[in-house]
Amino acid sequence: MATRKAPSRRGSMHDVPKDLMQQIQQLEQQFTVPTEKLLEVVDRFVGELKKGLSKEGGSIPMNPTWVIGYPTGDEKGTYLALDLGGTNLRVCEVELGEESGQYDIYQSKYRLPEEIKSGTGEQLFDYTAECVKQFLIANHEDEDIRDMKELHLGFTFSYPCTQNAIDHGVLQRWTKGFDISGVEGKDVVPMFEEALERKGVPIKITALVNDTTGTLIASAYTDPTTKIGCIFGTGCNAAYVEDMGSIPKLEHLALDPNLQIAINCEWGAFDNECVVLPRTTYDKHIDKTSPRPGQQIFEKMVAGLYLGEIFRLVLIDLYHNPDVKIFEGQNIEALEEPYSLDASFLAEIESDPWENLMDTHALFEKTLNITTTEPERKLIRRLAELIGTRAARLSACGVAAICKKKKIDSCHVGADGSVFDKYPHFQARGAQALREIFGWDASVRQDPIQIVKSEDGSGVGAALIAALTLKRINEGIHAGVNVKRKNSLIPPPENK
């Protein structure tokens, strides 16, 4: 087994009172995921990936995206890309370059108002369409947007969708804390196109893309060793390319079994049956009180939306524990506000460089109006480490499962998302978990499977998929499968 360890900042604990030290030890027992548990999770993960591709299906949807194959690196043209994420909305214009694997991108970011996340579909898409309109006006000052019918849009919609065509997507369910009425069970493409029309924007959607699929394609565009795309952010997910012959639920289409199609795993739903994941009482509380109890069980343990909430619940539990002395005599009203802390709060704690954790002291005073002692801060620091490390190690299980299922011995995994980008040591902790899962010892100088920073999947990836889509249309490959849409890029059945 590898002797290298993922970074952890374990300061001296000699001054931590016995009651707090006992709690630290109990938290370590609850949140530590040993190698044996990693292996158990991966084994079940592999089975669930296969089940999702089967005719019976499973908790993990394993949605075919109808993105066919990988980019060549020679794609060219100017495309519009829209990314509707969990926190922000981003509009991009991408110019795929003259040189292979090169591009330029112009973009604007808009904050999604909180009230929209629990409003109506019309409100959501009208706001989104207005942002697209303002972007075009700002970036094409000398042009009339009514004349931009030739611009092709790749729409990154990062929620579980059933796709029978590249420009079609029926929302299965909202995730990332969204609870918008009138959208689930409907095709989101015409809903958004109607909003664009209301705003006087004549653009049509060429491809509906999940951000993980976009990450996969964008990373493969600049790095052909990329075989998997992952998002570790507000939510979590992965995509990879599967052979049609390994997708039993699509057998009825009688397509070429060697055809390669990108699969959007939607692995946040892994272990919704609660068989193998090491859930704590805090994880169970988050699920029980969420808008969708019993769904996205894996996501609720590893995604950025929930890490701060797990942390908050533990601190409140300790505060109300009569055997523990923490935040004594202080008003913790701010701490008691649900979802008032997110993953960035934990990231700031883990980034504190001082032995006495004075940055954490200032953070608690500023954010929560709580004054902390040094021993309390050491418990706080260890708790943040435990939650962040568990998320990274469990996330690595999904990557390992895809590699084992596809028998991938060596590859790059393109990863994007705020947790991967900004959470200290997340990448290193995931790498350590992969070493344990695959048994790479110290003689392995370079990890064969590496999770690396991706290219811009939701921007460049969406533009590339739009380019790949248009290429296939121009080649005349646009037979539909029970979908009356314009760009149904499903190859016709083989001649028998």
Automatic annotation (TrEMBL):
- GO MF annotations in UniProt: ATP binding; D-glucose binding; fructokinase activity; glucokinase activity; mannokinase activity
Q: In which pathway does it act?
A: Carbohydrate degradation; glycolysis; D-glyceraldehyde 3-phosphate and glycerone phosphate from D-glucose: step 1/4; Carbohydrate metabolism; hexose metabolism
* Entry-linked Pfam families: Hexokinase_1, Hexokinase_2
Q: What Gene Ontology cellular-component terms does the record carry?
A: cytosol; mitochondrion
User: Which residues belong to any copy of the Hexokinase N-terminal domain?
Assistant: 23-221
Q: InterPro entries, from UniProt?
A: ATPase_NBD, Hexokinase, Hexokinase_BS, Hexokinase_C, Hexokinase_N
Keyword terms: ATP-binding, Glycolysis, Kinase, Nucleotide-binding, Transferase
The record's Gene Ontology biological-process terms are: glucose metabolic process; glycolytic process; intracellular glucose homeostasis; mannose metabolic process
Query: Where is the Hexokinase C-terminal domain positioned along the sequence?
Result: 227-468
User: What EC numbers are recorded for this enzyme?
Assistant: 2.7.1.-
Which reactions appear under catalytic activity for this entry?
D-fructose + ATP = D-fructose 6-phosphate + ADP + H(+); a D-hexose + ATP = a D-hexose 6-phosphate + ADP + H(+)
Q: Which family does it belong to?
A: Belongs to the hexokinase family.
Tell me the protein's name.
Answer: Phosphotransferase
